[in-house]
Every structure is written in structure tokens, then in C-alpha cells.
Amino acid sequence: MAGLRLSDFRSYELAEITLDPGVTTFVGQNGQGKTNLVEAIAYASTLGSHRVATDAPLVRSGAERAVIGVDVSRDDRTVLIELEINPGRANRARINRSAVPRARDVLGLLHTVVFAPEDLAMVKGDPSDRRRFVDDLLVQRSPRMLGVKGDYDRILKQRNALLKSSGVARRSGGSAMEKTLEVWDEQLAAVGGDLVAARVALIDDLRPFLSDAYALIAGGDAAVSAADVSVAYQSALGEVEALTDRDYWREQLLAGIERRRREELDRGITLVGPQRDDLVLGLGGMPAKGFASHGESWSIALGLRLASLEVLRADGDDPVLILDDVFAELDAPRRSRLTQRVAGCTQVLLTAAVGDDVPAELDGRRLLVTRGQVSDA
Fold first, then answer.
1. Residues 137-151: what's their mean pLDDT?
2. Phi/psi of residue 229, each to 5°?
3. Residues 37/52, Cβ–Cβ less than 8 Å
4. H or E stretch including 26?
5. Residues paired with 278 in a beta bridge
6. What is the pTM of this model?
7. Residue 152, class by beta-carbon neighbours within 10 Å (0-12 exposed, 13-18 middle, 19+ buried)?
8. What CA–CA distance (Å, rounded) separates 7 from 145?
């Protein structure tokens, strides 16, 4: 990645930064705008923020829209990605100044892996945090999955609306409602099966890299060996095989919907589908959530991100690695071991409140961020 330009993004009215290969560190006190810069870069690779669930907070107060421009080096050429963020309306995108039909058409041009303090939620947080991790990586690896996920969310919303109205319809003899619901069942199962099969395939590819990454970060003094670190896909359907066949998952979802039909009608909500699945992380034969220590949880979370890096590399890409205020959160041994791993990356972007938090081995270009202004330190 060669450069970043922002207009009305977060705290930045205007910003333009040239970026070089190797390590670049954004240094500044909290609240000065460091994370906003790397957030914009990550957004260009996933069309989502690692900090917030909606686009509205990304637009500077008082502005109607935000614009992100990123210069990406690919195949000995530079590609310009421009994204216009329009909360409440469709976002727009251009590639090399030419408009593209959909914003998601830029996916695949830039790959990033972001590790931030919020990532501890992947281990200690709710299932939604782990689903988000899987889906963000899935979209980078297979951009069409953003469309699949969008289709599924739309179908789920429509089906839930129908279920909520089912009480009135049933009291008035709702055979028409039942037939309509069956149509949404088929759509939910077909698109949901595609999504679950892709998630399972991703976890299969991630698993060996997670063991290696955990071994690197935790080190030889870890109480639990890397062989005892596990990751598995857990379906809300119960005990089913973790296959990567979308037709298998379609049939499983249809069967699950049929089993819970009465309960769904009574409660007015969809109880079966990938929106209720989870990623189960294990350590020493026990669930990491609730049993892993704070240091072990950090090692697993960081291991997941480093494993993501290797999955994308295995696909032939060289992602930009972003470490957002991470070194201050790690103890000295983990900091040292992470430094060894980071040193081999083509491009690394760091943020730090205190420059001394960044190990000397990662010395590179340093940019000072003060009140939304970026300058060489």
C-alpha cells in the first residue's frame, strides 16, 4: 500500500499520507486520531470497521459523507481505491477514478489483518464477536461472500417480520402465511447453507495456522501446549457434521426449521441459522472462554489474527498487518515473540501512545499524530 487520503472521515477533515513498505508507526496520545487512520485502511479491505457496527460514526460531525482513498500496489502497478461512505444511503466506490456498480467490487484489491485491544472479545466476548471475526476474514478471502451475507441478512429480516405477525395470521386462519413462510424457509436454508459451508471451510484452513501462531506467541513456558489449542465451528442445530457441502447444510437447516417450527411461531423469531452459530475456542480440553487466563486469552486472540495472516498468504496475497495499540497490552515475553513474527511482514502499520512501547527491532518511519494532523516525528 502506497498512500492514504481521507476527507471527512472521523476526526479528519482532510489528510494525505504516503506509506512505504516496512514498518510505519503512528505515535500520539490517546484521542489524537491514530486509530482513525488504520481504521480507514482496514475499512477499504472489508467495507466494515473493526470498532463500530455501522457507518454513521465514520463520518465527521457536520459532514454528509466521508471519503477514503487508498493507493494499493498490485502486480507492479498502483491501483487507486476510492470509497464514499453515505450513512443511510448506498455507499459508492471508484477504481482508478472509474465508478463501479457496487461498493463491494473493490473487495480483493487490498487485504489487511488488524489486531487491536478489542480482539480480546473474540475469546471472552459473545458469539457475535467470533462470528464477526470469521465473516470479516471470509469476505477478504472470497469477496462474493459479502453479497451472500447481505442476502442472508435481508432474508432473515423478512422472515422475522413474518414470524412476528404470525400470531394475528394464525388466529384468522393463516394458511397463506404458512405458505409464505415456507418460501422464506427455502431461501434462508439455501443462502444460509452457502454461508455456513464457507465458514466451516475457513475454520478448517485456519486451524493448523492457529496452533503454530499460539506456539510462537505463548512460547515454551506456556502452561498449555499448542497441540491443546483448538478451534471448531458450533452450529445451533446441535450435533451435526462440520462438512463444507452447502447442500448438506441446506438440508440440515430445513430440517432444523421444521423441528422448531412451533417454537418459532410462538416466539416470533428465527431460531435456526448461521446468525445463532458460534466459534468454539478450546485450551487444554476446556473452553477458552471462562477458563483461559488473561495472558492465554491474549495469546489465542493474537494467534487468530496471525493465523488469518497465514490463510491469506496461502491464497497468494501479502496482507498489510495492522497492530493497533497492541504492544502496550502485552507482557515483555509476548512482545518480544510478536516482534520476531512481525519482522517478516512486507508492510506493518503500528499505533502507539508512547513511542517507547514499540520494540527497537521494529524501528522504521514514525509519524506524529496530534489533533488530527499527521507529520514526520
1. 95
2. -95, 130
3. no
4. strand 22-27
5. 234
6. 0.92
7. buried
8. 28
